[in-house]
Amino acid sequence: MAAELKSTSHGATMVLTISNPELRNALGPEMYAAGVEALNAADKNPEVRSVVITGEGGLFCAGGNLQRLQANRQEPPEVQAQSIEGLHDWIETIRSFPKPVIAAVEGPAAGAGFSLALACDFIVAASNAVFVMAYSSVALSPDGGATWSLARTLPRQIAAELLMGGERIGADRLHALGVVNRVVAEGSALAEALALAERLNARAPNALASIKELLDEAAGATFHQQLGSERDHFVRNLHHPNAGIGIAAFLAKDKPKYG
């Protein structure tokens, strides 16, 4: 079976499923391009309020295809550079995508699969989920934004343990470290991710887009700059029709229905 990124709809949530069963859902250039295309389409579709990324067959993603990487060693360096640029385009599209993105992880999330999960806004992991930055185990360094993500979410020593040592880490420990949002029973990560998505879908999309943008800007901004950004987003959202809907519903003790 050919590797593909399957797209399905669950209400207002788009589900992207990594499907490459012969290689444990390993990633490749065609999948990167499909991921960018799917998110660009979802961005333009007001009926899509959130996205869930998951893997087929009870596992998330084994990372890169080692056979392809071995073959690329015989090619000019630009060949692998182009492939990584494709992955990075997908990762950056996830980060800049104005709607919530949730990773639903069952089983292994290795290498670029771990990087992909870290790029999402939320991680829902089954109790059997195992995360590993496998790069150093095959004499490689990370890609997919792994060093950026882990350096900002974990103490340096823990990040070094994962990145340099290639240590496997379970969902429970990542949850305790604040990287995983929820740990659920094996086989129920997607269902829990969809339930989370449904709750987010009920909130004003413009407000969620502002919060995501502010979170991404915060790491590189001074406190004064961030205060200015918060002011600008707040004023813009106050004058958005959804603020009128939300405030009126709260005062009336009713449930808002945002546009």
UniProtKB/TrEMBL annotation:
Record-given protein name: Enoyl-CoA hydratase
Q: Which GO terms describe its molecular function?
A: enoyl-CoA hydratase activity
Protein EC: 4.2.1.17
**BP term (GO), one:** fatty acid beta-oxidation
Alphabetized UniProt keyword annotations: Lyase
InterPro entries listed in its UniProt record: ClpP/crotonase-like_dom_sf, Enoyl-CoA_hyd/isom_CS, Enoyl-CoA_hydra/iso, Enoyl-CoA_hydra_C
Organism encoding this protein? Ramlibacter pinisoli
Which Pfam families does the UniProt entry name for this protein? ECH_1
Protein family per UniProt: Belongs to the enoyl-CoA hydratase/isomerase family.
